[in-house]
Structure formats: C-alpha cells, structure tokens
C-alpha cells in the first residue's frame, strides 16, 4: 500500500495508474458494456463514426461494431500482455535465481541458454513459434513469453550474485538454513524490486507484440484484438481511416499508460530504497 | 553497368538525363509512350506455362509463349486462332487434327513446326502439366504428316468440346530444340522463356521487374503495338492504387487494387475501372465439407448450412457487388453448360434451424448444437472475410465454428493432405469446361495431397458414373446434357456449397487501349494493346 502511495505521488505514476485502472475496469466490465459477441455482424457495413448513436465509432467492412471491438479488444490485449509478462518473469526469476545461486557450471550453462534467446529477435521467435504451432491465445502468450524471459533472468542473476555475498545470507547459511529456503526467503524478496520495475516494460512490449502478430494474421481469429482490427482497416485506409485509427489510439493509450506506470514504479521503488 | 565502373562521366550523363527529364516532362512521356508498366504481385519460380498452367504464370508468360488458340468473345466456338489456324475432330473422338500457322519463328530465329507441338504435347502437357494431365490423359501419339499439321491420337474417345475449351489454358507450345534431351523441370528456358509470342522476355530482376520487349518478327501484322511491357513487382496490394494515381504504373490487373478502394479510385480523372476480361477464369467461392464428420455426412445439415448463408450479403458487402450469387458448381458465365433449374437454397435461418432439429442435433443449454473447425483459404481478402462472416452465420443457427487461420502452405497441407478440417473455404476456378478443374472437386477416389480436389471424403457412385461417362462422350449435345445432370445432383446432395462467383477487376489509366477485349484478357498475349500518347 505504501508503494502505491509513493507511486501516485509521482505525476507519471498517477497518470499511468489512472489509465491502467480505467483499462482494467473496461476489460472487466466488457460483457456488461457491450453484451454479446463483439464479432457479430450488428449493422450496415462501413458506417462512419459519430453518426449513429447505436454505433458511436461506426462499423467495419462486415458491419461489426467498432466500439464493441475496442472494448473487448482491451480484454484480449491486457490479458495477453499480463499473462505473457507473468510467464516471462516467472521463468526469468526461477532461472536467474538458480543460475546466480548455484553458480559454477549450472550458471554457465543457463546463461548460455539466456544468450541464445537474447540473440534471436523476440518478435521473429514469436512469429516462428505461432506459425508452426497455430494461432490461439495460449500459444500467443507462450510465444511472447519465450522471447521476453531472458532480460528478467539476467537481471535476477545479477541481483542474486550481489545479494548472496551479503552478511545476512552468510549468517543464514551459518545457522544451517536449507539452500532452497535461503534462496526463496532471503535472496528472492530482495532481488525482486528491480525485476518488478522491468515487468511493466515487458507488459507493454507484450501488448505490442500481440498486436503485431494479430496484424500479420497470426492472432487467434476467434477473439477480437486491436491488431487484427488495424490489419482489417488497413485495406481501406484511404476511404475509412477511422477503422485503423481507433484501435491504434487504444493501443497507444495502453502502452503509454503502462510506460508511465513503470516510470512511476521505478521512482517509487528508488525513493523507498533511499529511505533509512 | 556495375558500381565498379561507374565513372564520373557516366554519373554526369545520368545527372544530365535526370535534369532533362525534370525540365522537359513532355519529352519523357513521349518516349515512354509505347512502354506499358504493369503491377505484378508474384514472381513464379517456374515461368513455363506449358508446365505450370496457372494464372500467376500466364499473366507474364502468355505474352512470350503462345497457346494454339485463345479465348474470344465472338470467335467460332469461343476461340480465336493463335498458333493453330483450325482444328477438327474425327467422328469416333479418337483424333483431332490441327492446322498450324505458317511462317512463325521462335524468338531465337528457328522456325516453329508441328514437331514443336508434338513434343510439347507428349513430353510436357501430358506428363508434367497440372491441367494437361487430365485433359490429355488418353493422348497416345501426335502425328506430324507435314510441318503445319499435327494430328492428336487418343486411346479412348476424347470429346472435341473438352479439347476446344481447354486449348487456351493447356496448349502453350515451347520449342523442342531447347528442351529435347534435357531435364525439362530444370531447363533454364523455364525462366528465360523462349516462345513465339509478340514479346520477348529480355530481362528479369528478382524483386524488381520483368522486362518484355517487342518481337519484331511476330506473325501478327502490325503487332505488337507496344515496344515494351514492364511488370513491376509490387507485392503490397495497397500500393498498386497509389502507384496508378502517381502514374508509376499504367495498369493493375487481377484486382491488385483492393475492391474497397475501387469506388474512390474510379472517381480519379484519367483512371478507368474495368470488370470485363475475366469471363473465362471465373473464381468460385465454395464451402468445402469434410464428409468424414458425422454431422456433416447428413445431407440435412449440409442443406441447413446452405440456408444459413445470406448470399446477397456476401455479394453486396464482402464483394461490394463485384460478384454474383452462385446456384451451383457451374458459373453463369459458362452459358454452354450452365443450368439454372437446379435446386437453390434461399437465405432462411428458421428453415436452417428446423432442418438441424430434424437431423437430431438439438440446441444445447448454451444455444449450441455442435462445434466445427472452419479453415478459410488465405489467398484472398474475400475468402478470409467470408470466413469471418460464415462463423457468424453459423452461430445464428446454433453451430459453433472455430476459425483457424494458416498461411497458404499450411492451409493446403491441412485441408488437402491431412484432412484436418470440418469446413473449409476455397476459391476453385472454373476454366471453361467442367472436366478441366471442376469435376475433380466432387469425384471420389482422388489420392490425398492433390490440391483443389475432393478431399472431403465424399463418395457418390451415380455422380462418379456421370463424370466418367461425360469424359468419353464425344457428342457435344449429349455431353452437355450429362453435365446438366451433374449440376442437379451436386446441387441436391451438396457435396460442397457454392456461394458466389467472381471475376477480377482491372484498373488502368485511360491511355491504355484495347483492354479486356477477350475473356482471358489479363492472361492473353496483349499483341493489340496500345498506349495513346
């Protein structure tokens, strides 16, 4: 709670938190805000925005409600972004912790694996993964996590390497604590904050990757996503630009919100560490 | 000129030309007056139309390599002579005699003779060509009594009607002297084409352009009218419209300009939108059905699906009116075969629901009867959009369709080899005669892996019988009658569901003359195409 208070005290944090809270609310309330399948054909095709109160943002090529698409797209984007970031950080933390704590050959081996994943551009990795296995939401989440776990793994390892030499770790060892206990109770909590600050950036990158995959037609075609909306609008960019602009704006707002939130979080965490 | 020998002088010269071209735009326009620049969206690996009879190859190669005859709006039998001047079938259907054009030369100067036709037919069309394999399946020998006569001998009666209708597509003649004794599949002439056509292929820069230059020795008097045709590779479909407006290109065929952009671009002065010129290459929007699925094996379920599709919506909204609703497996613009009296399925959700109830698939608690895997082909925007639409249309009658998107290779493997689909959306092509690429869509006994064929496990002995009989019926009227029966059975039993049929759209600058003057214009030789300066 104190962290949250520190966070909203910074202007970036306050704005970012506000945007994210609003998006989360929209995502949670999507079925109430726009009931029914957002992909159903609801009205006349290519209705321009701000004309018909039933379709405030107009309709697309097939007559689907753009507003419904954006509302339900929030769900997909946030869900995929959060799930991918969570998976990436979980993998990264575990591997980084193991590598840093175990040291020696295990460390060397794991870090070479990390190197391998860092060398391959994460988007290409996701592209290959999805096109081989097939597009569905869990596969997209895995594909994004696969390209994103290397950074938190490296960061965690660096943290662990410095923390494990601290006196309190040495004393924990002296009193005979089990190594796993030392790793998870003494080292992990102290290695966590910088990794958490990184997490927001991973979320933002994951949302963009998901949109890019959908844009290329590799998203799950059975759910509505902003990326696929932009891709469909792109074909008629000259005659109905609004079809690409609205989901584009939604994407920009979300990513900016996440970045601001991450800035605020970093500042709040830094400020807390400075306190005595 | 390579970068290495780029001297200061050539640079200055080039700079001078550039200056001149900006200072005197009229001069450059006059110079470019006989150069037609066309948008190309694909670069086929094998450009030999005798081996790969597909529109992507014909689009470029048909200007270089010619068939025996070309489709025509007003010619006899719907044909205009090219390398053959006349064709005649024997009464028993076992031979067809072609009289060939005299005085035709290959681009390398050697004379064109009946030996080239005999070689192309026996060594390439019959064993290697995707469509020729079917049409010339019973071709035994080609006799060449003299240099301008070729007599095709068949082991079984082969209808002249089929050969005639197939000629524009299957009969591209290539030079015997370049292919004989070599490995045909890897022959360099498959890329550096040598033909008899009005243009020579003089330059190909991968990823950039194909340059076709005038064949001064062409047999057509006063043809070709253009000095050069450049096919500029523009893989991005959204780019073709802008390139036309900027006069970087003068013609975009095969709907390179998206349908949604046509209303806007047709209002741009100096640009015309033409929907003629594709009558002999009608694409059909078809729902392919996997009959191995218990639910789909029931004809009532298939009828229900046919009733659930609003063809008017598909034509008006997905194709923006540039298509027609289908009644059956033969399109309306094949009047020779088309039968309008087949059973049709009007858009009627209530009836579809009733049929599904009758078939015993009641709606569950969640309003769903059963779930299906739906694979739309990725080749066209319209097939993908129809996939989105069909999912919604099926949801309205309680069938939950889960879309699966894949790239072309994965889609073809899943549907035509692995049969990993319940419903698929495909765009087969009607090529002037049902026996060429249409009966294969419903005939049984086709091995797995043959693309654009019946891979849904459908089997109907009566239908197979009619197809086999029509393949050997020489009498044109009797054969046509058999294909009318064929259409009736398909429309009644619904081995697949025909939704719409469409041709493509050509967008050209007003300066391009004689566009779309035959039913296969985009893939014909363009010898009379001209530019008004």
Describe this structure in words.
The complex is a heterodimer of chains A (276) and B (533). By secondary structure, chain A is mainly alpha-helical. Chain A has one domain: Orthogonal Bundle (MetI-like fold), CATH 1.10.3720.10. Helices cover 76% and strands 0% of the residues of chain A. Chain A contains 11 helices and no strands. The two termini of chain A are 18 Å apart. Chain B has 17 helices and 22 strands. Mean pLDDT of chain B is 90; it is low at 1-6 and 8-32. Chain B is 31% helix and 20% strand. Chain B is α+β, with helices and mostly antiparallel strands and 533 residues long. A 7-stranded mixed beta sheet of chain B has the order 8-9-10-1-11-20-12, with helices on both faces. Chain B is globular. The A-B interface holds A 37, 39-41, 45, 61-63, 131, 134-135, 217-218, 221-222, 234-239 and B 237-238, 241, 258, 260-261, 263-264, 313, 317-318, 378, 381, 384-385, 387-389, 391-392, 395, 402-407, 410.
Q: What proportion of the residues of chain A is helical, as a percent range?
A: over 70%
Q: Helix/strand-derived class of chain A?
A: mainly alpha
Tally of alpha and pi helices of chain B: 17
Q: How far apart are the termini of chain B?
A: 31 Å
Give the H and E element order of chain A: HHHHHHHHHHH
CATH class of chain A: Mainly Alpha
Class computed from helices, strands and strand pairing of chain B:
alpha+beta
Per CATH, what is the topology of chain A?
MetI-like fold
Report the average pLDDT across residues of chain B.
90
Largest sheet geometry of chain A: none
Quick structural summary:
Chain A has 276 residues and is mainly alpha-helical. Chain A has helices spanning 2-9, 11-33, 66-102, 104-119, 122-133, 137-148, 150-163, 167-174, 179-215, 226-234, 242-274.
């Amino acid at each position: 709670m104190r962290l949250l208070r520190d966070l909203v005290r910074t202007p970036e944090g306050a704005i970012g938190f506000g945007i994210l809270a609003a998006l989360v609310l929209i995502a949670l309330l999507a079925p109430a805000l726009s009931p029914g399948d957002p992909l159903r054909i609801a009205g006349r095709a290519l209705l321009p925005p701000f004309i018909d109160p039933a379709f405030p943002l107009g309709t697309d090529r097939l007559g689907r409600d753009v507003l419904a698409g954006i509302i339900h797209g929030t769900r997909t984007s946030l869900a995929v972004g959060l799930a991918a970031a969570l998976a990436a950080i979980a993998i990264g933390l575990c591997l980084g912790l193991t590598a840093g704590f175990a040291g020696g050959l295990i460390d060397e081996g794991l870090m070479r694996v990390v190197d391998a994943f860092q060398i391959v551009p994460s988007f290409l990795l996701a592209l290959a993964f999805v096109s081989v296995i097939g597009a569905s939401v869990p596969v997209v989440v895995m594909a994004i996590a696969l390209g994103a776990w290397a950074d938190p793994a490296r960061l965690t390892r660096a943290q662990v390497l410095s923390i494990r030499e601290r006196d309190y770790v040495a004393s924990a060892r002296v009193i005979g604590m089990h190594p796993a206990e030392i790793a998870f109770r003494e080292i992990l909590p102290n290695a966590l904050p910088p990794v958490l600050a990184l997490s927001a950036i991973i979320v933002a990158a994951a949302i963009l990757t998901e949109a890019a995959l959908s844009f290329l037609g590799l998203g799950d075609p059975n759910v509505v996503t902003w990326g696929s909306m932009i891709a469909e609008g792109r074909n008629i960019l000259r005659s109905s630009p609004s079809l690409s602009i609205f989901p584009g704006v939604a994407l920009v707002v979300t990513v900016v919100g996440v970045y601001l939130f991450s800035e605020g979080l970093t500042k709040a965490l830094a400020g807390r560490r400075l306190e005595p | 000129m390579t970068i290495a020998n780029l001297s200061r002088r050539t640079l200055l010269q080039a700079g001078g030309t550039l200056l001149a071209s900006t200072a005197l735009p009229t001069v450059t326009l006059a110079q470019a007056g006989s150069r037609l620049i066309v948008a190309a969206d694909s670069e086929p690996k094998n450009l030999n139309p005798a081996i790969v009879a597909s529109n992507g190859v014909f689009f470029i190669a048909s200007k270089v390599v010619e068939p025996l005859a070309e489709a025509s709006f007003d010619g006899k039998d719907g044909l205009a002579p090219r390398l053959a001047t006349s064709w005649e079938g024997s009464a028993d259907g076992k031979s067809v005699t072609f009289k060939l054009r005299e005085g035709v030369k290959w681009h390398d100067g050697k004379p064109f003779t009946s030996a080239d036709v005999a070689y192309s037919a026996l060594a390439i069309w019959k064993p290697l060509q995707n469509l020729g394999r079917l049409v010339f399946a019973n071709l035994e020998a080609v006799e060449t009594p003299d240099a301008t006569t070729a007599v095709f001998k068949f082991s079984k009666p082969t209808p002249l009607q089929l050969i005639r209708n197939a000629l524009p597509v299957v009969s591209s003649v290539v030079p015997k002297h370049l292919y004989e004794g070599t490995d045909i599949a890897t022959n360099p002439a498959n890329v550096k084409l040598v033909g008899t056509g009005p243009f020579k292929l003089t330059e190909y820069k991968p990823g950039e352009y194909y340059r076709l230059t005038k064949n001064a020795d062409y047999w057509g008097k006063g043809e070709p009218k253009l000095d050069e045709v450049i096919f500029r590779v523009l893989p991005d479909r959204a780019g073709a419209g802008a390139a036309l407006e900027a006069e970087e290109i003068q013609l975009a065929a095969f709907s390179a300009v998206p349908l949604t952009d046509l209303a806007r671009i047709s209002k741009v002065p100096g640009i015309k939108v033409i929907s003629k010129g594709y009558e002999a290459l009608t694409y059909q929007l078809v729902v392919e059905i996997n009959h191995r699925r218990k639910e789909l094996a029931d004809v009532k379920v298939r009828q229900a699906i046919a009733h659930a599709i609003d063809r008017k919506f598909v034509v008006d909204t997905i194709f923006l009116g540039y298509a027609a609703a289908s009644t059956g497996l033969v399109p309306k613009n094949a009047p020779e075969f088309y039968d309008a009296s087949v059973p049709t399925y009007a858009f009627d959700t209530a009836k579809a629901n009733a049929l599904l109830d009758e078939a015993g698939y009641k709606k569950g608690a969640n309003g769903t009867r059963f779930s299906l895997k739906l694979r739309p082909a990725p080749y066209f925007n319209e097939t993908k959009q129809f996939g989105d639409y069909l999912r919604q249309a099926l949801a309205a009658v309680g069938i939950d369709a889960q879309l699966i998107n894949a790239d072309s290779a994965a889609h073809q493997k899943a549907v035509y080899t692995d049969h990993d689909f319940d419903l698929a959306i495909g765009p087969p092509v009607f090529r002037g005669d049902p026996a060429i690429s249409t009966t294969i869509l419903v005939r049984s006994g086709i091995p797995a892996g043959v693309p654009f064929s019946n891979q849904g496990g459908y089997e109907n002995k009566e239908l197979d019988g009619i197809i086999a009989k029509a393949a050997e019926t020489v009498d044109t009227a009797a054969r046509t009658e058999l294909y009318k029966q064929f259409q009736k059975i398909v429309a009644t039993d619904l081995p697949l569901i025909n939704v719409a049929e469409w041709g493509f759209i050509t967008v050209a600058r007003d300066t391009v003359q004689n566009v779309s003057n035959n039913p296969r214009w985009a893939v014909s030789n363009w010898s009379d195409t001209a530019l008004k300066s």
